[in-house]
Design goal:
This protein is mainly alpha-helical. It contains 4 helices and no strands.
Length: 141
């Protein structure tokens, strides 16, 4: 099991290294001679061999038993703000809405709609007296 894992890893690494080398050669052919410089494939191979030798391969049980390290979030650790901070720097302080029960929410919504109805009836009442709002009949109420 481990031998197959090591073999597959090595095979993939050599394939990737060779492809990268060939791509480098193709790119360098487009440049003038005095600007060319490709890393020889022998050095690429020796680098891959060194990396594989230094890699510790584990089976699943060993991996699960091994102590885990705490990973750093992507982009590095978050900055900590010391001293005076602006209101926008603080998390979750913008709109604190208290929890409501279903009945409380229903009562609150009813109060809001009553308030809107009262406001709109005043506005539409003003329209008869030559007000500014131009509303079609039945649009809001």
């Amino acid at each position: 099991m481990i031998k197959k894992l090591i073999f597959d890893t090595a095979k993939a690494a050599f394939r990737k290294g060779f492809r990268k080398y060939k791509a480098e050669v193709r790119q360098q052919k487009k440049l003038p001679r005095h600007l060319r410089g490709v890393v020889p494939y022998d050095l690429v191979k020796s680098d891959i061999k060194r990396k594989i030798k230094s890699t510790k391969f584990m089976d699943k049980e060993t991996y699960l038993k091994a102590p885990k390290t705490k990973s750093i979030p992507k982009g590095g650790p978050r900055p900590q703000i010391f001293g005076k901070a602006y209101a926008s720097d603080k998390k979750g302080k913008s709109m604190q809405i208290p929890m409501m029960t279903k009945e409380q929410r229903k009562a609150n919504q009813e109060a809001i709609s009553q308030s809107v109805r009262k406001f709109m009836s005043e506005k539409l009442g003003r329209k008869k007296l030559g007000g500014v709002i131009k509303a079609r009949k039945g649009l809001f109420i």
